[in-house]
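so ive been stuck on this for like two days lol. basically i have the seq below and the ligand is flavin-adenine dinucleotide, smiles is in there too. i just want the complex predicted, nothing fancy, no docking runs or whatever. if the output looks off dont worry ill sanity check it later, just need somthing to start from for the group meeting slides
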Amino acid sequence: MANYAADVLVIGGGIAGITAALELLDHGRDVLILDRDEETGFGGLAKESFGGLFFVNSREQQRNGIKDSPAQALRDWHSFAEFGPADRFPKLWAETYVERCIPDVYEWLRAGGIRFLPLPAWVERGETPPGNSVPRFHIVWGTGRELATRLIAALGSHPNRSRFGVKFQHRVETLVTQGGRVVGCAGAHERDGTPFEARAEHVIVASGGINGDIPRVKANWHRDWRKPPEVILNGSHKYADGKLHDAVATIGGRLSHLDNMWNYASGVHHYRPRKPLHGLSLVPAKSALWLNWRGERIFPPLVSGFDTRALVTAICAQERQYSWQLMNRRIALKELAVSGAEFNPSIRDKSWLRFARDMLLGNRWLVEEMTVNCRDFVAARSLPELVDKMNALQGDSSVDLDALTGAVRRYDAEVARGPELQADPQLRRIAELRQYRADRMRISKSQTILDERAMPLIAIREFIVSRKSLGGIATDLECRVLADGDQPIAGLYAVGEAAGFGGGGMHGLRGLEGTFLGASIFTGRMAGRGIGRAS
Ligand SMILES: Cc1cc2nc3c(=O)[nH]c(=O)nc-3n(C[C@H](O)[C@H](O)[C@H](O)COP(=O)(O)OP(=O)(O)OC[C@H]3O[C@@H](n4cnc5c(N)ncnc54)[C@H](O)[C@@H]3O)c2cc1C
C-alpha cells in the first residue's frame, strides 16, 4: 500500500485539474494530482481538442467590428440551454461565466502566452431556438495541444513548484470520509494493481465526464433521441467512465442531467484507434447532401453550423440511426474538416504558410488521408458505382440507387438555377452562412454534385459520436459538491466536465461551443482560488 498526503488532492490531470492546481500553487498550497492515464496523456482531452474557446467582447471580436456583451451572450445562452426551474446553480454558472470569461480565462491565457486566430468562428447560430447571435468561437493558435502544453509547462516553472506533485497511472476508486468530511481517496495503480491511499484537507474531482463509456451513454440516452443507436462511436476520453461520479453519489453527492450530452452526428471510425470504437467527429461539409440509410435526402435538409443537437435528433429519428453524406472531391477539398488537434496540423504546428495553402488550394492532405484510410469513406466516378460501394460497405442493399440519383439530380438542378431562383432550404442556409467572411472562405459558392470537373464522388457513412457530458456532479458557485437539499459535502469539490462544466449542467440542453474548454478552465480556477483563499 502506497500512502500520499497533500493539502489538496486533485483527481484528474485534464485542463480543469491543471488550472485548479496552478491556482492552488499561486496560493502556496501543497497539491497532488492523481491521474489514471500515462504521462503522455497529461492534459486530458484538451490536448487533443481543437482549442476553440467562447469569449464575450474579446479583442478579436472588437477588431472585426463584432459587437457583443455579457447580457447578449447570456440571452443566447438561456435560449440554447432551455434551463428548467430547478437549475439554480447551472444558471448562476452560466451567468458568471459570460461575465467573467474575459478577465478570468481570456486575459489569463493571454498572460500565459496563448494567442488566438484573428477572426472568431461563428458556430451554433441556432435555428429554433436561436443560438450564438454573433461569432464567439476563438481558436487557439496551436490548437488545444498548445493550451495544454503551456499550462503543464506553467506547473513546472511555477515559483512554488516544489509544492506540486503528480502521480500517473493512479486510478482513484473511492473517496475516504471521516466524521462527515471527505479527507482523501483510495485506489490502485493502473498497471500493477498496487493499492494506494491519499489524504488531504480538500479533494477536487476533475475526472472528466461519462461519455467515454458507451454502455453508460446508452443507459442515459435522452428521450428526445428515441432509442440509442446500435453503433455509437467514442469521441471522449477512454477513462471518462463516470466511476468517480458513482463514488461521489455513494457518499451522498447529487448527480444531475446525465442525459444531457453534446454528441455529434457525423462520426467516422478512427483508422488508428486508441480505444474501442474510437470515433472522429467530422465538421460536416455544408454543400454535401445529407442522406438517410436508404440514400434518401433527409428533410428538412441538414446543414451544420446551426444546432448540433438538432442534427443528432434528426439522425436518431430515422429508422436506422446512421446517415450518409454525399459530395464530390472539390467540395471535400474546400469543406471537409475533422475536429481536434490531430487533423488540423497547420494550426496545431502554427504554420501560417500551410494554413494559407490549405485555405487557398483546399485541404488535399486531409481528403487524401481520409479517403485512403478511413473505412467509412467510399469514392467512385458514377452514382451506380458509388451506390454499389456504399452497399458493399454496409453489407446489404439498403441504399437505393433510384432514390439517391433522384435526390442528387433535383439538388443539382436547384443549384444550376442560380442564386436568385434557389428555393432549396440548404442553399438558402449556405447563402446565409457565406455572408460571414470566415465561413465564405470555407464553403463552396455554387457547386453541383455531378460536376465532371469535380470528380470523384465521395460518400461518407456517419455515426453518432459521443463527446461531452453536459450534466454531472452538482456544485455550488464555489465548486463544492452538493448533496440533496443543496447541502455542501465538506472537503469535496468538482470541476470541469465532471461537474457538467459547473453546477452539474451549466449548458442545459445545448452548448454554444468553446464553452467546454472555457468553463473547464474557469471552474478549475474558481475551485483553486476558493480553497486557496479560505485556507
Ligand atoms: C477531439 C476533441 C475536440 C474538442 N474540441 C473542443 C473545442 O474546440 N472547444 C471546447 O470547448 N471543447 C472541446 N473539446 C472538449 C474539451 O476538450 C473537454 O470538454 C475538456 O477538455 C474537459 O476537461 P476536463 O479536465 O474536465 O476532463 P478530461 O480532459 O476528460 O480529463 C479528465 C482526467 O481525469 C483522469 N481520470 C478519469 N478517471 C479517473 C480516475 N478514476 N482516477 C484518476 N484519474 C482519472 C483522466 O485520465 C483524465 O486525464 C474537444 C474534445 C475532443 C475530444
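The chain has a mean pLDDT of 97. The first strand starts at residue 2 and ends at 5.
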